Amino acid sequence: MIGFLRGKLMHKAPPQLLLDVNGVGYEIEAPMTTFYDLPALGQDVKLHTHLVVREDAHILFGFASETERMLFRALIKVNGVGPKLALTILSGQSVADFYRCVEDNDVKGLVRLPGVGQKTAERLIIEMRGRLPELDSSVVSISSVSNPVQLANSPKQEAVSALCALGYKPQDAAKMVQGIAVEDKSCEDIIRMALRGTIK
Question: What dotted CATH number matches 4-63?
Fold first, then answer.
């Protein structure tokens, strides 16, 4: 229905962002892999989108690449995986990392993600193995944020809030960022370091 949106980035507070498209503000939810590539506020950005229609809400999801969107769409077809869990999976791993988990039968690598238990991880590996060839994992890479955005709260507080929104418990989110030196780091940088720390 809505294939992509191109507009001005007005606000971002992971996992949500606001895009101004010709005077219309679109609220979009996006994985952290997309947030890492976002420009500064006020700059133009293009996002590939997927609209989820529920009885109580219409939720628009945005992705930096077509590959991310394809993986998202494949994930939500797996029994027991909804859009929120799919977003969490994409936030915690790059497409290439997810490929490796599936191809190597790495259940532990998937269980480390919030909301993914043993059975869900095994189901993901079994059901996704046949769908991976249509995805191009080389397209997606996690790049550094060239224009960090100053947020209302401290970047550390925003990072904890974002991790909670992604499914982590507040105490776990706080522990994840506790040992990170946050000086001169953006919210996205702190989240990326915290997520990397959970998959070592």
Answer: 2.40.50.140
pLDDT in tens, 28-45: 999 988 988 899 999 999
The position carrying tokens 């998959």 is: 199
pLDDT averaged over every residue in the chain? 82
51 contacts 2 by C-beta, under 8 angstroms: yes
Please report which confidence band the pLDDT of residue 72 belongs to, taking 50, 70 and 90 as the band edges.
very high
- Contacts by 141-146 with C-beta closer than 8 Å and gap 24+? 141/94, 141/96, 142/33, 142/36, 142/94, 142/192, 143/36, 143/37, 144/36, 144/189, 145/36, 145/37, 145/38, 145/186, 145/188, 145/189, 146/39
Q: Which residue type sits at 21?
A: V
Sequence spans of domains, the chain: 4-63, 66-139, 155-198
- 23: its two tokens: 């005077």
Closest CA to 107 of 92, 91, 123: 123
DSSP H helices, 20-106, are 32-35, 66-75, 83-92, 95-103
Q: Residue 117 is which amino acid? A: G
On whether the 66-139 domain is CATH 1.10.150.20, my answer is: yes
